[in-house]
Amino acid sequence: MYKSKIKGTGIYLPKKVMTNDDLSKTVETNDEWIFTRTGIRERRICSTEGGEFPTDMALNAAKDCLAEAKLEPNDIDMILFASVTPDAKLPNSACILQTKLGITNKCAALDIAAACSGFVYGINMADSMIKTGMVKNVLVVGSEMLSREVNWEDRSICILFGDGCGAAIIGRNDEDDQSEVLSGILGADGTGAEFFDQPVGGSVEPIAQSHLDNRTHFMQMKGRDMFKVATRTLADNAKTVMKRAGVSMDEIDWLVPHQANIRIIETTGKLLGIPDEKVIVNIGKYGNTSAATIPIAFYEAIKEGKIKRGDLVLFDAFGAGLTSGATLLRY
Length: 331
Ligand SMILES: CC(C)(COP(=O)(O)OP(=O)(O)OC[C@H]1O[C@@H](n2cnc3c(N)ncnc32)[C@H](O)[C@@H]1OP(=O)(O)O)[C@@H](O)C(=O)NCCC(=O)NCCS
Fold this sequence. Notes:
Layout: E1 4-12, E2 16-19, H1 20-23, H2 31-38, E3 42-45, H3 54-69, E4 78-82, H4 93-100, E5 108-112, H5 118-132, E6 137-145, H6 155-158, E7 163-172, E8 180-188, E9 196-197, H7 209-214, E10 220-221, H8 223-245, E11 254-257, H9 262-272, H10 283-286, H11 293-303, E12 312-319, E13 323-330
Parallel strand pairs: 4-5, 4-6, 11-12
Antiparallel strand pairs: 1-7, 2-3, 6-7, 8-13, 9-10, 12-13
Helix pairs in contact: 3-4, 8-9
The structure holds coenzyme A (COA).
The site of coenzyme A (COA) has 22 residues, from helix 2, helix 6, helix 8 and strand 12.
């Protein structure tokens, strides 16, 4: 059986910054309310003029991944594109990205609809397929333009989200390589679907003028219900991947959690007994970018010199569905 490792990372962040003060000009809110409850100060917003749509952002991030991994586009055997805000319904964003990257090897291209857990779903699926020998190098992307799906008149939800993209190439490692994915878990609990959903716009309830008039076609969330399940699930999954790899909490160098809310991150950290200094947090700058939070936070922590090759890193994600997943790896 082969082993896999992260070979390269990349991100793209939209140029436009929207601060809490900007938001307070359009809905009844303020920086203090938002910051104390969520840890968010500002978020990025994609241009609607073009150049920053999800596959555009992914193209930029993927180029950095390829350069770091010292690979050519045609070395990619599969693209896994995690997003709840793909460019279009058809074709999938992975196929669009394949063309934009100039890949001509007819590699597999699949979108993952697992909301905020999508990137971790992609990493764990890629790891499994690399282990069997079916693929060698997989480009895993989390790219979101949530600003399109947020009701900008609903202060309970529009303050939370932002746009952005993070990506990684996960590939077969060399035999003497210390870097490897050690263990993973993926899960879901569909009974909590109504805590965070967007029922309008699918086959059951196609979008109609009445939805547009009443603004009922946007994402909707029961924030308190999400909060409770999120912390419990994040802690349970982290414990499971550590157990599977025979690793204790003390040995973990870095927890890279989904960035939904600073209080969810802090509560999860307490449940796990991990010191704050070992938890990567960047939610203040970007808000919740769904599938993109973990790869962006991971990339930034590497560039800031925090996460180094050889460190034990734990990805921990939770999102609508309710989906969840964790990955333990030696970077
Ligand atoms: C969304 C969240 C910040 C709301 O915090 P909360 O303490 O639960 O707040 P509530 O929704 O109960 O609202 C409390 C009050 O603040 C008000 N309020 C809501 N949004 C506000 C805003 N942006 N600015 C000011 N006041 C606001 C509410 O109207 C309510 O007022 P009321 O008491 O007069 O009715 C919090 O529930 C949360 O972070 N949940 C997790 C959500 C999440 O991250 N999900 C994604 C997981 S992938």
